[in-house]
Design goal:
This protein has 16 helices and 30 strands. By secondary structure, the protein is α/β, with parallel strands linked by helices. The structure holds oxalic acid and manganese (II) ion. Oxalic acid binds next to loops.
């Protein structure tokens, strides 16, 4: 059995509550050794992982890993929020009683780390000194070294984060036990995996995966589910699956910050890492704060809405990342960055990596190339065109590798939020941008956010897969309470942020081409939004928000036809009327939705009905 006391003493970890927690789980999981890690251990752990074959070299200071082939994505069906209060049950949180889930998970985890090292990872999900630090501290336990390496990239890791806590007990207990991946029945009726956040006990118990989305507990379970619950229970903040960017106007010297939620495959990471288009680069600089999570609160001194990215890195989807879609992401995984790639294609002879969309065609000479499962491409049968990389393959890199990282990303204060945007991939109906100045209508818009189903067969034509606030997989409590809490937090702010809905993905119904060039040009509608907020443009009021007039958008250097432009700045009233029926059904699922949200829905519906255009 592990000598827990010696390991904790060796690391200088004195917090008595943390020590007790580590002892309890070392004993229950039967781990053979215990090791407390800090970010400074990274180089040694990398060397160990390379020696054990858990990582392979992928170029100068770059690494490659492969997860078990049935363990490559988050599992929403196996993810549960448990509490002691049935009133916390929502539509999306898969609520179960804590009294049922804790013993069940303890049973699965009992003895499951026998023969393994249990790593103790004290972490902080916030810039140090941030007002929300008391909610950001955690200690992850894991029996997988590559999970430690990912946690070091994705969060601030070190013993110092759990010493000298005002309340030594105020840390999230985040337990990760991998289990026997080859015998867990993933995706079958006998699935043994469970990913549980016991939210009112601030305890996370994840069993049955070592894939990042299930195993990096600081990010996915603490940063979103646990924090959302804490934010509501304390009445202090929101934890949202939002990107966060800064826009600096070199002419006026002003800085703006925009955060926002996008359902998956709707371009959130590309937007977060966007650079200004060449034609506007002399005037504007776009900086990166985060691509996936923002915590929002009202700053006590200024009374303004503030935001920060609790993460320390990017766990990005590799597919389709290239010089056009996201050059900053490519630079952030360049030589010397210590980035880790997972489940992409790899050539162990040359140490090169590749994924679909990295270049238009895969490497012409397939010698030495292995697909994400480790099978040689050269051995494929003729006609086998399955992807070389898994569609959910990832890169993991720290924030300061991103070339346009904001100078103040690590500042304790966070940044004031000027605008909150939502945007789901939609081939018609949703214009390029529509601004919403009313708080309840903005929250209503977020609650009815969705993206078109990925496969035509998945839904009715034109019907979205709703993903409220892009938080569907991370909802921690009832949606009615969530909406009320969101309204309360934002309403308390002195300067109200402007809301907007954006859509970069409208297509021509005839030939399918995208009507808007997207990528760097997406800065243009955001600049218009900021101008609207500051009264510099007026836009055109429609039943579903204010949209830019054609001459208000700065289109210098954009290649777009007059016809396409007109289309993306027009409201298709018939389509919108149809959407309102879908929205009503969607919202009716939620118990206790504030009357303000229903009023917003009725206002928009009435305005559409009255529209003659
Ligand atoms: C996700 C992620 O799965 O950010 O949402 O990795
Ligand atoms: Mn995410």
């Amino acid at each position: 059995m592990a000598d827990v006391e010696a390991a904790l003493d060796h690391a200088g970890l004195k917090n008595p509550q943390v020590r007790e927690y580590v002892r309890y789980w070392a004993d229950l999981t039967g781990a053979e050794r215990v090791e407390v890690v800090s970010a400074a251990d990274d180089a040694r752990l990398i060397a160990e992982a390379l020696a054990e074959g858990e990582l392979e070299p992928a170029g100068d200071g770059l690494y490659y890993s492969r997860s078990y082939h049935k363990d490559t994505a988050r599992s929403e069906e196996r993810t549960i929020v448990a509490t002691n209060d049935p009133k916390d049950k929502g539509v999306y949180n898969n609520w179960r009683p804590a009294s049922e889930m804790t013993p069940l998970l303890e049973d699965r985890m009992r003895g499951a780390s026998a023969g393994k090292t249990m790593y103790v990872i004290p972490y902080l999900m916030a810039p140090p000194g941030n007002a929300l630090e008391p909610y950001a501290t955690g200690v992850q336990l894991t029996d997988t070294r590559t999970v430690v390496l990912h946690m070091i990239r994705m969060s601030r890791v070190g013993v110092e984060y759990v010493e000298n806590l005002e309340d030594p007990n105020q840390f999230v207990r985040a337990v990760h036990v991998t289990g026997d991946l080859e015998n867990l029945g993933q995706g079958t009726p006998d699935d043994e995996r469970y990913f549980v956040t016991v939210a009112d006990e601030r305890t996370i118990l994840h069993y049955g995966s070592s894939y990042g989305g299930n195993a990096l507990l600081g990010k996915i379970a603490h940063g979103l589910r646990q924090a959302a619950y804490d934010g509501w229970a304390s009445g202090k903040f929101l934890a949202e699956q939002y990107m966060l960017i800064g826009i600096h106007d070199k002419e006026t010297g002003k800085d703006y910050h925009i955060c926002g939620g996008f359902p998956s495959a709707s371009g959130k990471t590309n937007l977060a890492m966007m650079l200004a288009p060449d034609a506007l680069g002399d005037r504007y600089h776009v900086s990166f704060y985060g691509d996936d999570i923002a915590w929002l609160w009202v700053d006590e001194t200024s009374g303004k809405l503030y935001g920060m990215n609790p993460e320390y890195g990017v766990f990005g989807v590799a597919k389709d990342t290239n010089e056009t879609t996201n050059p900053t992401a490519l630079a952030s995984v360049g030589p010397g960055t210590q980035a880790i790639f997972t489940n992409i294609a790899y050539n162990p002879t040359t140490n090169e990596v590749w994924w679909e969309g990295r270049t238009p065609e895969p490497p012409a000479d397939v010698t030495g190339w292995l697909d994400w499962k480790g099978n040689p491409i050269a051995d494929r049968e003729a006609g086998d065109d399955s992807p070389w990389a898994h569609p959910n393959s990832r890169f993991t890199t720290t924030l300061d590798n991103v070339p346009n990282i904001a100078a103040d990303y690590n500042a304790a204060t966070g940044v004031p939020i000027d605008a909150i945007i939502f945007g789901g991939r939609t081939r018609d109906r949703e214009p390029l941008i529509r601004a919403i100045t009313d708080l309840a209508e903005g929250v209503y818009d977020g609650l009815t956010l969705g993206a078109e189903a990925t496969f035509a067969a998945e839904g009715v034509d034109g019907q979205l897969r709703y993903d409220p606030m892009s938080n569907r997989p991370f909802m921690a409590y009832g949606e009615g309470d969530y909406a009320a809490h969101y309204l309360n937090i934002v309403r308390a702010a002195k300067d109200q942020p402007i809301f907007a809905h954006v859509n970069w993905f409208q297509r021509d119904p005839e030939d399918g081409h995208f009507l808007w060039p997207g990528y760097r040009d997406n800065l243009r509608p955001l600049l218009w939004l900021l101008q609207l907020k500051h009264g510099e443009v007026k836009g055109r009021q429609t039943p579903v928000g204010i949209i830019p007039t054609e001459d208000e958008l700065n289109l210098e250097g954009v290649d777009i036809s007059a016809e396409d432009l007109q289309k993306i700045l027009t409201i298709d009233v018939d389509r919108w009327r149809q959407e309102m029926g879908f929205r009503e059904e969607h919202l009716q699922q939620f118990d206790g939705l504030p009357e303000e949200i229903w009023e917003a829905h009725r206002r928009v519906a009435a305005a559409l009905d009255a529209d003659e255009s």
